[in-house]
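[agent] plan:
  1. take the single chain provided in the ticket
  2. run structure prediction with default settings
  3. attach structure tokens to the ticket
  4. add a short note for the reviewer (M.T.)
[agent] executing step 1
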Amino acid sequence: MLFDPTTRQVDAPGAVTRPEDQAPVTGRLEQIAYGLAGQHTGIVKTGGQLRLLDYLPVIETLLSKVNTQFAHPLEDDPKTVFAAEWVLDNFYLLDQTRQEIEGDLPPTYYRQLPKLTDPGPNHGYPRVYVLARTFAIDEECQFDGRRFARFVTAYQQSHSLTMGELWALPIMLRFVLLASVAQAAGRVAGISSNREKAAGGADAALEFTHVINDNEVVSHSISSLRLINTHEWNDFFEDVSQVQKILCTDPAGIYARMDFATRDRYRGAIEAISRTSGENELAVAQTALALARQAYQDYCDRNSQPETEPSNFEEYANGGGPLHGPSAPEVDLLEANRHLPRASHIGMYLVAEGREQLEKLVGCRPPLGMRLRRWVLKHPTGVYLGSISLVVSMTVALSVAYAASPGASWWLVGLAGILALIPPVALAVDVVNWVVTPPSAACVAKIGFQDGHSSGLPDDGRRARSDRASV
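[agent] step 2 finished; step 3 output follows
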């Protein structure tokens, strides 16, 4: 039975559910994540104070003092040698990490992250910050990408994270590890007499209690920062994103075969629609999927074909294997589904003419600028020629008005108008072209064939690709 967008039921941001198709919570790591999710009963979507961003200057000051203290010690203390070597050798990495956090987490992005409203020290902090902090402390500041993916997946069995939250996870991990280094190194250097002073008077949510000693906190955190910098976060995102899993069940079997930039463009459309509607991202994705499935079923009915849902990608979306890259299912769905109408592809409702239909179903009202742009695109010839005519008319009118000074004869005024007509035409064309041309070319939807994977590529395309490789 197809999903009906008019009767969809999607978990609210704060709802706690256990989908039947998800794996049960097993293992200590998963139990911690699921238990943490159970504590997060109150979520507010946007707003809040910039507490983490306000704490970054405190970290910078503390690390600077620690670095100076270690570089010019008043006396040799064997207890500080280990941490001092780590901080002095990697101070550039710590400062670079702080700058990356500031650049990757501007105030506008920070305010979009859902915040916790539950009573306690985490009140008002981003949900993903608490998630990253819990993982880092429990793992003794040692980062492992696969374990982190398991942790996030287990958490999402209760609460689905937004795509913005998933992209913020590496930022939050960097923040927690950087703050851990600053606080632990500060205690080793004797700059702070206790944790509260080391945290610059911050509340308990920014004061970290580790089971390992301060020297281990410093070494583990710095090593993890290096691992985070080399981790494939694009793959991580697509492995844990629930929106990604929904889109990979595209009835046309195309989405999972597209390159990353195209998939990201589709997901960005869902984000934008969700932000200006009353639905969450999963609801928007499921509604788009329902529209594509309905078009697929209608095509099968018209052509008297049995409805055969392309379950290969649904199997992978439900845990059967990776959804992208060279290890995705070796099924030539692109070739098999070439006869399907465009409406059976989920992209029709995200980045093409079916988007307005999707927006209407989920109650989305696009911003004024987007509505104006769409109107222009629907009337391209009139807008283009009309704009040129307007610019030319205004320029000629000004020239004629200037020439029509007291005492000027009518033929001089007419001649001035004719002579003034030619330059404004060229000027108007240039101006209008500059206004209507985007600063960069739009992303064109593409099928990805990375790592030699060419499933779905026509025979002539394979030969051409092979010829280019040999050249």
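[agent] step 4 note for reviewer: The CA atoms of residues 140 and 212 lie 7 Å apart.
[agent] ticket updated
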